[in-house]
Write a structure and sequence with these properties.
With about 350 residues, the chain is mainly β. The chain has 1 helix and 20 strands. The N and C termini lie far apart (about 120 Å).
């Protein structure tokens, strides 16, 4: 490393030769030193060795008043890093390029090779892009202002484009919950109305499946919608129970009842669920105990029998009788004539 004032004065030949060698040495080392050479003039390039101990040299340009940093030399990696953002370098030769700021594409696109994409800072894949030859359709991703959701949209040259989500293997697409249970909203074609399908809340503690029906196109029927089911079989629920002395029938839950009587008096108590099930029909099966004395049946006033005669059932052990019923109105359940002693 050497510097020289680049001024060779008139002198004896030995001194001239020494002065000339010193100036040539300064030129040969690019005026290297920890400060600007004293003879610097506008246009002088010099090498700042202040950080040479950390394998870093800095090339500076003197503009007549200030030193402008031009590039740094990494003597460990054997690379030159240009400081001026307008300088052009070949990224192909830089295997670990880093940005000093945001990358502005300047109205151009970024081209990504097939089956390549974006990795995290550990080198793991975040997004991998797959190429389709002569592709005309793609995704648009749009951010949003306060109060509006961001949008993922299928766009392209075709007039009608599906949005295809594909899980791997036996995986499935999951709509996660947050403050509320997971939900999907289906809008009308004008996006002015929407219907939401959502899962049960966490408190329900359920994990199950809803299997859609096979067959032709159809419309789902709900608990509150008005619809007609054609060629469908509704299998009613049946309660099987033993009466000790009294039994209250639950018409909300069950349509048919199989009741084993206790020996002696048995009572059908006043129900409280008939009001919401007007028009419901079903049967009541009474079974006598397998041993001991027979059971009889008495009725609360909400139960009405033919001619007001009440119910007389079989008396043999283990015999069973069938009584049809119809809920006519709240507090009015019509019982048909018992069919006795089936065997």
């Amino acid at each position: 490393m050497a510097q020289h004032d680049m001024n060779i004065a008139n002198q004896s030949f030995p001194s001239f030769r020494s002065d000339l060698n010193n100036s040539l040495s300064a030129l040969n080392s690019m005026h290297s030193g920890t400060s600007r050479p004293s003879g610097a003039t506008t246009g002088t390039l010099w090498l700042d060795t202040t950080n040479s101990g950390s394998n870093s040299l800095e090339i500076k340009f003197f503009d007549g008043s200030d030193d402008i940093s031009f590039a740094t030399v990494d003597t460990s990696a054997n690379t030159i890093n240009f400081i001026d953002s307008q300088s052009q370098s070949d990224l192909v030769n830089d295997t670990t390029p880093q940005l000093g700021g945001d990358l502005d594409t300047n109205s151009f696109n970024i081209k990504i090779d097939d089956a390549h994409g974006i990795n995290d800072d550990d080198g793991n894949e975040l997004i991998v892009f797959q190429k389709t030859g002569s592709a005309v359709n793609q995704f648009d991703i749009t951010n949003s202002a306060t109060g509006n959701p961001p949008k993922l949209e299928a766009t392209g040259g075709d007039s009608n484009i599906d949005l295809d989500l594909e899980a791997k293997g036996t995986g499935h697409v999951t709509v996660r919950g947050n403050t509320n249970a997971g939900a999907i909203q289906f809008n009308c074609e004008s996006n002015s109305h929407g219907q939401i399908v959502k899962s049960q809340p966490h408190s329900a503690s359920v994990t199950n499946e809803l299997l859609l029906p096979a067959g032709a196109s159809s419309t789902l029927v709900s608990l509150v919608s008005t619809g007609t089911l054609t060629n469908k079989v509704n299998i009613p629920k049946t309660e099987t129970a033993t009466i000790s002395t009294s039994k209250t029938l639950d018409f909300d839950t069950y349509q048919n009842f199989i009741l084993t009587l206790g020996s002696g008096a048995n009572t059908l108590a006043q129900p409280s669920t008939e009001a919401g099930n007007v028009g419901q029909t079903g049967i009541i099966v009474f079974i006598q105990p397998s041993s001991g004395s027979a059971g009889t049946v008495s009725l609360h006033g909400d139960y009405e029998t033919v001619g007001g005669a009440g119910l007389t059932v079989s008396s043999a052990n283990s015999s069973y009788d069938v009584v049809p019923y119809l809920i006519k109105a709240d507090n009015s359940i019509l019982l048909g004539t018992p069919q006795l002693a089936f065997s």
